[in-house]
C-alpha cells in the first residue's frame, strides 16, 4: 500500500517537472516589404510562452530566415511586463 502511494507521488512529481517543448516559430524577413513574415500564421513571436506557471520550464526554437540580399542583424530581448510581487491592485 505504501509502495503504491510512493509510486503515485513520484510519478506526479516527475510529470510536473517535465519541460514543455513548443513548436518551432519560423520567421522570414521580406526585404521588398521591409517586414517580417510569420510562416506559421501567427503574429506573436512568443505565442507559446503565454500562461506560464511559476517553476514551469518551456523551450522553443525560433528560426529566422533572411530572404533579402542585404545582411541583417537580429536581436531578441524579453522584458517582464508585470510582476506578482509588485502588484498591489488587490490590496486595500
TrEMBL record:
Signal peptide: 1-22
Keywords: Signal
Protein name: Uncharacterized protein
Organism of provenance: Mediterraneibacter gnavus (Ruminococcus gnavus)
Amino acid at each position: 500500500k505504501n509502495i503504491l502511494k510512493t509510486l503515485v507521488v513520484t510519478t506526479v512529481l516527475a510529470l510536473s517537472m517535465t519541460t514543455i517543448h513548443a513548436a518551432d516559430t519560423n520567421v522570414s524577413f521580406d526585404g521588398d516589404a521591409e517586414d517580417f513574415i510569420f510562416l506559421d500564421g501567427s503574429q506573436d513571436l512568443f505565442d507559446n510562452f503565454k500562461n506560464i506557471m511559476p517553476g514551469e520550464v518551456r523551450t522553443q526554437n525560433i528560426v529566422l530566415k533572411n530572404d533579402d540580399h542585404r545582411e541583417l542583424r537580429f536581436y531578441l530581448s524579453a522584458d517582464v511586463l508585470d510582476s506578482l510581487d509588485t502588484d498591489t491592485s488587490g490590496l486595500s
